[in-house]
Amino acid sequence: MPSARQFMGSYLTAADVAEAPIRAPIARFETGEFTDRNGKEKTKLIMHLGGHDKALVLNDTNIETCIDELGEDYETWVGSVIELFKDRTKLGRKKVDCIRVRFPKEE
């Protein structure tokens, strides 16, 4: 049976966390090639979360947040619980929705 899910994006967007943050363990990483707004190819780190089909393409801001909390070796981040939430950022002259990461305090 054909599934419409095949046409959904593979990566999380701010709309995916608009209603509520996503809290999940980091499951694994991969890298991917992306084209930036200037047409330049760039390798990006992609974070997969436990229990979620979509992955997060990490930008520099989110990588810095992870490094500050967990250290530079991203392979050691696996298993850490992370929270993704909607925020706003400036892109050119416009403010746009984005995803930011944070680390929940243990309860």
Topology:
Layout: E1 22-35, E2 41-49, E3 56-57, H1 60-70, E4 81-91, E5 94-102
Antiparallel strand pairs: 1-2, 1-4, 2-3, 4-5
Number of beta strands: 5
Indicate the low-confidence ranges by residue numbers: 3-7
Please, how many helices?
1
Distance between the termini: 44 Å
Mean pLDDT: 91
List the keywords.
5-stranded antiparallel β-sheet; disordered N terminus; mainly beta; globular; 107 residues
Plain-language structure description:
The protein has 107 residues and is mainly beta. The chain has one domain (8-102). It has one helix at 60-70; strands at residues 22-35, 41-49, 56-57, 81-91, 94-102. The protein has a 5-stranded antiparallel sheet. It starts with 21 loop residues before the first strand and ends in a 5-residue tail after the last strand. The model is unreliable at 3-7 (pLDDT under 50).
In summary, what is this structure?
This protein has one helix spanning 60-70, and strands at 22-35, 41-49, 56-57, 81-91, 94-102.
